[in-house]
Design brief:
The chain contains 21 helices and two strands. It is mainly α. The longest helix has 26 residues.
């Protein structure tokens, strides 16, 4: 039976509390408080011996079976009910006597100790349970740190997260624990660990514990891992569309992590701050192709392309590695310098040099900006439409086309209505930008420009004078041809 060998509740709690005190003493001897440079992590797979020990293996096997059966029942009951009462003592026996019996001992133990923490009678007892939790993570590394799936990197990440959560006074230890986890796991790091690692980076820098330059280094590291995971899941989604619900959930988790990291980073990312930090590193890094690539991307994202640092980085990046991305960065440099013909040249090179739809979409988008700067409106519209072929949700491309229509409206007709017809076409593009984009900034910009268009629509009197009816279709014929709907501003 599931609840065989039942012991009375008061006896269970007495045993568990005594166990907590024992583990607390053990923990204090294993992990004393240390300065950050003296942090010593548990040695992976350092515990040796038989699975169920060398003495009384039958008792060990019996306790392991009891703990696992009752834990499974507790899990089946959504971690509610009385099964936990009959799980704790046999689990405790295994933890103290047969640390190699199964890694489930530690993975389940996190949930068990969490339950005890939540039900602790006072704050002192809860703190001792937190000690137990940290001891649990260390023992897991010592026993099963070499495991392929839930090895040292995974365990350190979870420990760092719980340190951050439960021990605010040990944020440095939490930071270095998560940092080591990320260094081990790389692109396999969990989304939550990336978010809290970067959050602790920000807090420790603000507290004077870390060098400011780490905000940029850790931003690049965290975002690169999150993007790598998203790219991998997108590839998986393409290969296995039947699993779309599960895969999209994973993509969403890392997208949220990217958003969290970007929000924390934003106050640090003024052009002045980015240029100050990276400008000081440029001379020693100008042959580091990957560093130059990341710098260009950061300066582009923060719209810092007017600074000479961006020009130097874009040129060196292209010289170092003439890829589609470096060609696009060089195009951005010429765009900011208003050398539109050279900008178009490098954007075309970027388009031809990649099969990546996202890069093509961006290159065409910026090419459209270059053509607009050169007053080549038809080419600008064509490039923006090409961008939309590769990214139909690019609201910025629709806004650019709307801007072209609005800015040239008065030159496209010969009376009070035809000179305003371009505003109808422009409003349609702004409405489309709002419909396809999920970017709040794009949506707000499109809404604002729609309002400007509405104010420039002809009046009902104008429409009546030229025998036009609101709601009827109309074709704008100018340097472009666009079908739209007749509307008035009153």
């Amino acid at each position: 039976m599931l609840r065989r060998s039942i012991i009375r509740k008061n006896r269970v709690m007495k045993t568990v509390l005594s166990f907590v005190f024992v583990v607390s003493l053990l923990l204090s001897s294993v992990m004393p408080l240390m300065a950050q440079k003296d942090i010593k992590f548990p040695e992976s797979c350092s515990i040796k011996g038989p699975k169920f020990g060398t003495t009384d293996t039958l008792t060990a096997q019996k306790n392991f079976s009891l703990y696992r059966e009752n834990f499974k029942q507790w899990k089946k009951d959504n971690f509610k009910g009385d099964a936990i009462k009959f799980t704790i003592e046999p689990w405790r026996y295994c933890f103290l006597n047969v640390p190699l019996c199964s890694q489930n001992l530690y993975l389940d133990g996190v949930r068990i100790v969490g339950y005890l923490m939540d039900n602790a009678p006072d704050s002192v007892t809860k703190e001792r349970y937190i000690d137990t939790l940290m001891m649990l993570y260390d023992r897991n590394i010592e026993a099963f740190g070499c495991a392929k799936q839930y090895g040292e990197g995974y365990i350190l990440g979870r420990k760092g997260y719980d340190l951050y959560k439960y021990r605010p006074s040990e944020k440095e230890l939490a930071y270095y624990t998560m940092e080591k986890s990320i260094n081990i796991l790389g692109n396999e790091t969990e989304a939550a660990i990336l978010s809290f690692f970067f959050k602790s980076t920000d807090e420790l820098i603000r507290g004077g514990y870390l060098d400011t330059a780490l905000i940029y280094t850790n931003y690049e590291k965290s975002m690169a891992i999150a993007q790598s995971q998203i790219d991998a899941f997108n590839a998986e989604l393409k290969a296995n569309p039947a699993d779309s619900a599960k895969i999209n959930k994973k993509i969403e988790i890392f997208t949220v992590a990217e958003g969290n990291i970007a929000t924390i980073f934003d106050p640090w990312a003024s052009c002045e701050q980015v240029i100050k930090i990276y400008g000081a590193q440029f001379d020693s890094k100008q042959t580091d192709c990957e560093w130059l690539k990341k710098l260009c991307k950061m300066l582009e994202n923060k719209k810092c392309t007017d600074d000479p640092l961006y020009a130097k980085a874009a040129i060196k990046s292209y010289e170092c590695s003439p890829t589609a991305e470096s060609a696009m960065s060089l195009g951005n440099y010429f765009l900011s310098a208003k050398n539109y013909s050279e900008a178009v040249k490098y954007y075309n090179e970027a388009v031809k040099g990649t099969e990546d739809a996202a890069i093509k979409a961006k290159a065409y988008q910026w090419m459209a900006e270059a053509y607009r700067g050169a007053s080549q409106y038809a080419n600008a519209r064509s490039a923006a439409n090409s961008s939309l072929q590769f990214d139909p949700n690019n609201g910025d491309a629709y806004i650019l086309i709307g801007d072209l229509y609005m800015s040239t409206a008065s030159s496209c007709g010969d009376n009070d209505v035809t000179k305003r017809a371009g505003y109808w076409a422009a409003a349609d593009k702004y409405a489309k930008a709002k419909a396809v984009s999920s970017d709040e900034k794009v949506i707000n910009e499109a809404s604002s420009k729609m309002g400007s268009c509405f104010g420039a629509f002809p009046t009902k009197e104008d429409l009546f004078f030229y025998s036009l009816s609101p709601g009827s279709s109309y074709t704008v014929s100018c340097w472009y041809t666009e079908s739209t709907i007749i509307r008035s501003r009153d």
